[in-house]
Design a protein that fits this description.
The chain is built from five helices and two strands, in the order ββααααα. With 129 residues, the chain is mainly α. The chain has one domain. Strands 1-2 form a two-stranded antiparallel ribbon. α1 (32-45) packs antiparallel against α2.
């Protein structure tokens, strides 16, 4: 019996997004980057927009460098200990939540709110110069 773990990838996907090439047979992903690529392909098949897939893939690869994606508590700690803005942390959480949904897992997502920043208003002499 042929293992259920083989998939035929038949649609062309943007190489820029770091996704898989077309017509490639993929066994069950073992390495973390293969798992992220497989996730990206599945989300493409689910109809998620290409731009969204690119952003989520980039964020997941960033998280994979600093934490084990199979351990939500480790990911939560890694995100919290980073020195990024809250809007960036929220984006990482959204991407990781979608990844866990793909894997059939759940986690309690931390709540980050976007910080308001004061816009730059040049002085009159800076405008005249």
């Amino acid at each position: 019996m042929v293992k259920k773990a083989y998939y035929l990838l038949s649609s062309l996907i943007s190489v820029k997004a770091g996704l898989l090439e077309p017509n490639r047979i993929l066994s069950k992903p073992t390495h973390k980057t293969e798992l992220i690529d497989y996730y990206s392909w599945q989300r493409k098949k689910d109809g998620l927009a290409d731009q969204t897939i690119e952003v989520y893939t980039k964020r997941l690869k960033t998280l994979a460098k600093i934490a084990d994606l199979s351990k939500p508590e480790e990911v939560k700690t890694a995100i919290a200990s980073g020195n990024q803005k809250n809007s960036h942390k929220k984006g990482l959480c959204v991407a990781y939540t979608d990844f866990l949904k793909f894997k059939g897992l759940k986690w309690e997502r931390p709540k980050y709110k976007k910080e308001q920043t004061i816009p730059f208003i040049p002085l009159e002499k800076e405008i005249d110069a």
